């Protein structure tokens, strides 16, 4: 996939994050794509759903799995505005997502390389290809502005 396509998909993830922000959620958006088709999309709904697992990645994975009728999602790419946490990274590995593309690093809980290394850990039975830093500045700015407004 080209860098241009990655940026286009990431812009859609940023728009999803904005939807979550308008609901008072931490602005993280994600979409799962296969063959240029969105299989599942979502944004954080932890507050709205009173569900600590309702991160954007999990919401997108659940929608894609329902749409595909399978919990395994090979050949897919997840676009997410923030480096996945360990819970989300584990779910991505278990779902056999082929590739993960994210924007901003998460220096407090990131599970690609910032804190943990889950996505491509050689001990696991599946590894995701990872592309970091796509529209990182925009993704980071969206999060920083959200938290600045809340202070």
Give the strand tally: 5
Gross morphology is globular
What is the structural class?
Answer: alpha/beta
DSSP strand (E) fraction?
15-25%
Assembly state = single chain
Helix tally equals 5
User: Which stretches are poorly predicted, pLDDT < 50 over at least 5 residues?
Assistant: none
Question: Going across the major beta sheet, what is the strand order?
Answer: 2-1-3-4-5
Percent helix range: 40-55%
State Rg. Answer: 14 Å
Mean pLDDT across all amino acids: 97
- List the secondary-structure elements in sequence, H or E: HEEHHEHEEH
The largest pleated sheet is described as:
5 strands, mixed
Head-to-tail CA distance between termini: 39 Å
Question: What do you see in this structure?
Answer:
The chain is globular. The longest helix is centred in the N-terminal third of the chain and has 20 residues. It is built from 5 helices and 5 strands. A 5-stranded mixed beta sheet has the order 2-1-3-4-5. Helix 1 runs parallel beside helix 5. The chain has 151 residues and is of the alpha/beta class.
